[in-house]
């Protein structure tokens, strides 16, 4: 039964996403022929998409602290593809993502169309290109989110931050804001570390998405830091930001196995 419900959730989510994205692309094409800015239209699409995702997958989101207003540069811990839902819901933003995302079938094109900046983390020379794109992306309509751990994790700790991803705010002495995410699932569901966190090479993306869809309820807490961090030294900036995120971070741990028997077929 859970597999059937999970499949129906994914079908509804796919249909909704493709339909609204098609409408978004039509509107985007029209706006690019006018002098009007397209970021507000993109923000409306992404926030509406996030609202629908919350309803379809029954995600309960709790916010602690105040999100920064655009333009902003913010860093956050990273555990899953699910992370973008609470972030888009509370921030007018776009992201910096690894270049591999752009090559994903269908999803890569969709992600590219909403202004995500792709970075080749294997090439130091790519930093200059990315910094130029960041300069153009930060404006009164949107801020930028970076996952400086460089990869997703199981949520047991905040991994070391990669300094090269913070080159732009260090070079411009820009204040950097912080946020953290925490997930918990309902009794009887697989624990969040298995059903929400997507990391390593434990299983395929499709297999994990089906696990997530079978989860009856996901509780997400998004916490915003109170003190932005500044430094013109990117290594020092990375260390100080790691310390700030760690202060507001709560590990995503497995729930009591007596209450988490996992989804039935």
Sum this structure up briefly.
With 265 residues, the protein is an alpha/beta fold. 42% of the residues lie in helices and 15% in strands.
Structure description:
The protein has 265 residues and is an alpha/beta fold. The protein has one domain: Glycerol-3-phosphate (1)-acyltransferase (3-Layer(aba) Sandwich). It contains nine helices and seven strands. It has a seven-stranded mixed β-sheet, sandwiched between helices. Helix 1 (2-31) packs across helix 8 (205-214). The radius of gyration is 18 Å and the shape is globular. The termini are close together. Residues 255-265 have low confidence and may be disordered.
Write the layout of secondary structure elements.
Elements: H1 2-31, H2 39-57, E1 59-64, E2 73-76, H3 84-90, E3 93-98, H4 107-113, E4 117-119, H5 126-137, E5 143-146, H6 167-172, E6 177-185, H7 192-195, H8 205-214, E7 218-224, H9 234-248
Parallel strand pairs: 1-7, 2-5, 2-6, 3-4, 3-5
Antiparallel strand pairs: 6-7
Proportion of beta-strand residues: 5-15%
Instruction: Name the average pLDDT.
Output: 90
CATH class: Alpha Beta
- Give the assembly state of these chains: single chain
Query: What's the β-strand tally?
Result: 7
